[in-house]
Amino acid sequence: MDVLSAMAVFARVIELQSFSLAASDLGVSSSSVSKQVAHLEKHVGAALLERTTRRLKVTEAGEAYYEKCQQILSQVEEAEALVTQFQGNPHGVLKVNSDIAFGTALLARAVPEFLVQYPDIQLEVMLDDGAVGPLQQGFDLAFRVIDFIQPSEALVVHELACAPQVICATPEYIARHGQLQVPADLENHNCLGGVSLGKANRWVFNGIDGSQEIQIASRLRANSSLMLQAVMLAHQGVCRLSGFEACQLIEEGRVRLLLADYEVKPCSLFAIYPAHKYKNMKADLFIKFLEGWITANVKNLEKCDQIL
Fold first, then answer.
1. 30-59 pLDDT per residue, tens
2. Distance (Å, rounded) from C-alpha 221 to C-alpha 192?
3. Do 228 and 183 belong to one domain?
4. Which GO terms fall under biological process for this protein (predicted)?
5. Domain boundary among 48, 64, 85
6. Whole domain around residue 236: which residue ranges?
7. What's the CA gap between 83 and 70, in Å, rounded?
8. For residue 57, what is the domain's CATH number?
9. pLDDT surpasses 50 at 308
């Protein structure tokens, strides 16, 4: 038995909480995953997982073993990355996680050029609107558009760009419910809010009267920016969007900018990656590539002046 490979399989089962999902992620059969975990348990002489028909539970020994597996696998990855740097030829798999809005609006446009520029790197990209937890699930790099992320000993946080926020609604919604004159008018509208982006139920504005924080009323709160945008486009409410999402919608006439005389507290586009002793060369290349791509391809990212 290849103990290191079995450790990697076991770790993926823990991270995905499923034998079948781990098998799909690793490109092998569920029976193969189950056998490798069973062989690993026999090798260490302890039950690492408790299997039932409904759930997968990690034993106390399994939790301790998983923590050590993470450290060992991380050290192996760092060693391989270090050798790659000496070779000067980046190759292998880079696992990237991004929030859905940024992933679909910009990342999807940048990835083809990266793949052409670095033909020996394979990308695995997963989109979700969760917190930075994906880095604990084996991802090398994550992108989030958010107001603030606290760096730590375990995480490096790199700000790539300012991401302005704007308030929008469809012309149909405005015709039915009226135009907004001041931020306080939001209290009489259905605001579509997030549930996992900091103070998602409070929108902060800056204007000639200073800063003001508005408690929004919402019949829908969701952790998916795409869902909120879809409901807004169905004329069901007012939505706060990032500038790179809003520009195209406004240009197409599908939504209108509201409260244009007020600045919505902006967010930032952050790259987050584990604070290893050795840099992940592929992640570093991707971050630098994306910074250059944004500068070259996203006009007026900070203000979208021509439209907003």
1. 999 999 999 999 999 999 998 876 778 899
2. 6
3. yes
4. DNA-templated transcription
5. 85
6. 163-267
7. 20
8. 1.10.10.10
9. no
